[in-house]
């Protein structure tokens, strides 16, 4: 028996009925003779002319929904004579199978490492690349997503789903204008190639949602709202469409409409950590902190390591008047653990510390910033926050003038004395330790920068503080 493939196989069926020993290399003349006979046999075969079959519209729609119709011809991944032997590809196949299981188990990093290795052996294989695109998307490594999508589309430019994924990845890269172009192209392909029913409609809705997000990033709110409304036309209870419309209306000052869609989103929110957290943020923006508490609390239960959910819960508790509960949330070990795991813990500490100060929880805010500086000693933003409140806190027991001066001087040096806010903080710190002449001179330096940089509110505040320093009085934040 002879089998024609990149690595030909020849078996003696009488002596080896199980075909365990490939004789092609041991008996090359026999293999060559059988290959020649196979070639002559194929040349003598006739190909029947295709018969046209009439299909009724219902059957045609069913075939489209199953993916048997539509699309365009795809070029072979490799040309005849260059294709790899299936036996040599078992490692790639097994890697893809294992990676698929890892993706299902949300072990995306492990899947990505395995698939990158498989693609080195077979860069033309689409299935491992498709799984790699999904893994990197989940990991939010959008540069890698775009790289692999472009490689995929070079082999199969007609794949609508991968084209949609490219649009989503471009949004993740901060390139919404490019994303709009790609996503609109994806929608045009769907419109010209057929089905908008069932599974395909769900994919189209996903593309519309991504397109709406891209328009939002470009502040093209009417176009964004149009995409979300088109989703709701076919899926009236779609959570993401309601949520996204609510964010559009909130951004454009249409409170009643925003609340209407937020209410619909509340009824349809999936029981997953990120959607719950994002809905909590939206409800907080709409002045509904009690409902926001419920969403953040559930998000924390679903994923105790999600920093934004912990921050959101504490902020919503403060906003709803539950100060003691908010402080307990800040003291919870899982709160600091989530912060420690956050990729951008400095921004979270900066933002939440200010929330704590707004609700007069100065000690907690100072602790938050101090802990952050221990982890990231070079953070100018946290050093500035801490310096300001150590100099100006209305609680006498929390102020520390010498430490404030040290921190503020370091920030001023690091910014080459070219930003008004660090100099404003340094002036306040000098005033706190009684060096009012230095405070006046530094504050005037800050005022000149604020005026040059066209920051009227800050300039006005600095003028008020200069009057205090001239009168030999330090500045204090409101108690």
Task: Please describe what this structure looks like.
The structure is a single chain. The chain has 479 residues and is mostly helical. Among the domains are: 1-38, no CATH class; 382-479. The protein is built from 24 helices and two strands. Strands 1-2 form a two-stranded antiparallel ribbon. The chain is elongated. GO terms for molecular function: identical protein binding. It comes from marine sediment metagenome. Pfam families: TPR_16, TPR_19, TPR_4, TPR_7.
Entry keywords:
single chain; 479 residues; mainly alpha; TPR repeat; repeat
Rg calc: 32 Å
The helix-and-strand class reads: mainly alpha
Give the proportion of residues in helices.
55-70%
The secondary-structure element order is EEHHHHHHHHHHHHHHHHHHHHHHHH
Cα-to-Cα separation, first versus last residue: 92 Å
Largest sheet: 2 strands, antiparallel
- Total E-strand runs: 2
pLDDT averaged over residues: 89
Beta-strand content estimate: under 5%
Q: How many DSSP helices? A: 24
Strands ordered across the widest β-sheet:
1-2
Uncertain runs are none
- Principal-axes geometry comes out as elongated
Organism: marine sediment metagenome
Pfam families: TPR_16 (PF13432), TPR_19 (PF14559), TPR_4 (PF07721), TPR_7 (PF13176)
InterPro entries: Alkaline_phosphatase_core_sf, CellSynth/LPSAsmb/PSIAsmb, TPR-4, TPR-like_helical_dom_sf, TPR_rpt
Protein name: Tetratricopeptide repeat protein
């Amino acid at each position: 028996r002879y089998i024609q493939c990149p690595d030909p196989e020849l078996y003696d069926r009488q002596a080896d009925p199980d075909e365990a020993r490939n004789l092609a290399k041991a008996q090359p003349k026999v293999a060559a003779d059988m290959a020649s006979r196979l070639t002559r046999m194929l040349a003598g075969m006739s190909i029947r002319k295709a018969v046209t079959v009439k299909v009724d519209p219902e059957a045609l729609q069913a075939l489209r929904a199953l993916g048997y119709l539509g699309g365009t011809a795809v070029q072979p991944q490799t040309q005849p004579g260059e294709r790899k032997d299936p036996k040599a590809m078992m490692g790639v196949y097994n890697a893809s199978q294992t990676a698929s299981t890892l993706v299902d188990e949300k072990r995306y990093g492990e899947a990505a490492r395995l698939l990158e290795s498989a693609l080195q052996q077979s860069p033309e294989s689409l299935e491992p690349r498709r799984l790699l695109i999904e893994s990197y998307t989940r990991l939010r490594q959008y540069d890698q997503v775009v790289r692999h999508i472009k490689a995929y589309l070079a082999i199969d430019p007609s794949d609508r789903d991968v084209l949609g994924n490219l649009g989503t990845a471009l949004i993740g890269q901060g390139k919404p204008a490019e994303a709009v172009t790609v996503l609109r192209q994806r929608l045009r392909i769907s419109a010209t190639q057929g089905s908008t029913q069932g599974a395909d409609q769900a994919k189209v809705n996903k593309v519309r949602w991504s397109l709406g997000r891209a328009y939002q990033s470009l502040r093209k709110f009417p176009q964004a709202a149009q995409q979300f409304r088109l989703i709701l036309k076919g899926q009236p209870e779609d959570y993401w469409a309601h949520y996204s419309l609510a964010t559009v209306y909130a951004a454009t000052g249409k409170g009643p409409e925003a609340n209407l869609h937020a209410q619909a989103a509340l009824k349809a929110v999936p029981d997953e950590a990120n959607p719950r957290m994002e809905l909590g943020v939206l409800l907080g923006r709409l002045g509904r902190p009690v409902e926001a508490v419920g969403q953040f609390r559930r998000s924390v239960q679903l994923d105790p390591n999600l920093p934004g959910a912990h921050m959101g819960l504490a902020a919503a508790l403060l906003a709803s008047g539950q100060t003691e509960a908010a402080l307990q949330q800040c003291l919870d070990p899982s709160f600091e653990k989530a912060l420690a795991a956050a990729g951008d813990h400095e921004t979270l500490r900066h933002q939440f510390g200010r929330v704590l100060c707004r609700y007069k929880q100065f000690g907690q805010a100072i602790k938050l910033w101090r802990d952050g500086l221990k982890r990231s000693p070079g953070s100018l933003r946290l050093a500035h926050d801490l310096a300001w409140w150590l100099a100006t806190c209305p609680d006498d027991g929390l102020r520390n003038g010498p430490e404030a001066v040290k921190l503020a001087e370091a920030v001023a040096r690091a910014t080459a004395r070219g930003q008004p806010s660090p100099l404003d903080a340094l002036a306040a710190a000098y005033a706190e330790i009684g060096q009012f002449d230095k405070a006046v001179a530094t504050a005037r330096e800050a005022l000149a920068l604020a005026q040059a940089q066209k920051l009227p509110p800050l300039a006005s505040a600095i003028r008020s503080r200069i009057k205090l320093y001239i009168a030999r009085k330090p500045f204090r934040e409101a108690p």
